[in-house]
Design a protein that fits this description.
Layout lengths: L1 H31 L10 H24 L3 H12 L3 H12 L3 H13 L28 E7 L2 E7 L4 H12 L3 H10 L5 H9 L4
Antiparallel strand pairs: 1-2
């Protein structure tokens, strides 16, 4: 009988150790496991979300305004000012072709963040190349300028209607020196002769 006591005590000690180890592991796992709802949002997180939402709405208002012509912009803002939100949404929908939900969001953003109408500037045509070597054409182009009794003529195979038209526009738009430089580069006349010619185009 005594021979059985020692093995039984050993088994009891091992079982107790296993039970304690299992309990410790279970506690550690429970502490490490995140809750289903996650950490509660603090005041700073809430303020950050509100700032991001406001920025998104400002950008939406800017994009919405850019889709409108000046007349459409005036009409929609007049309806917003009169409190006619439904009419403003319909007007935006008809003006841009966007869906009613997108039109609603756009009008809400426009009301919250008023936008001035942005007038798109027409693209400037490139000026004649006065730095590089002008192209020579197979024909000679004649350009004539006159004022009163004074007449000047330039004949060159480095001019055509497009190049001469741009030079003339520069002269008439308040840039006579650049026009004279371009004319001299595209002809065989001197800079002084080019300035005399351009002076006849300025009016």
């Amino acid at each position: 009988m005594e021979s059985l006591i020692v093995p039984i005590l050993i088994l009891a000690i091992v079982a107790a150790g296993v039970a304690l180890a299992a309990r410790a592991i279970s506690r550690r796992s429970g502490a490490a496991r995140p809750t289903a709802t996650g950490p509660a949002a603090g005041p700073g997180d809430d303020a950050g979300r509100k700032a991001a939402a406001a920025q998104d709405q400002r950008e939406l208002a800017r994009q919405a305004s850019a889709r409108l012509s000046a007349e459409q912009h005036r009409r929609i803002y007049a309806l917003i000012a009169q409190g006619q939100a439904v009419s403003a949404i319909k007007a935006y929908n008809q003006s841009t072709g966007q869906g009613l939900r997108a039109a609603r969001d756009a009008v809400v953003a426009l009301a919250a963040h008023p936008q001035p109408h942005q007038v798109e500037q027409p693209a400037q045509e490139p000026m004649p190349d006065v730095e590089g070597q002008p192209e020579r054409f197979a024909y000679r182009y004649r350009a004539i300028a006159s004022k009163g009794e004074i007449t000047r003529e330039v004949s060159s195979n480095m001019l055509n209607d497009e190049i001469y038209g741009r030079i003339r526009d520069m002269a008439r738009n308040g840039n006579p020196e650049a026009a004279a430089t371009a004319l001299a580069r595209h002809s065989d006349i001197s800079p002084a002769e080019a300035r005399e010619f351009i002076a006849l185009l300025e009016d």
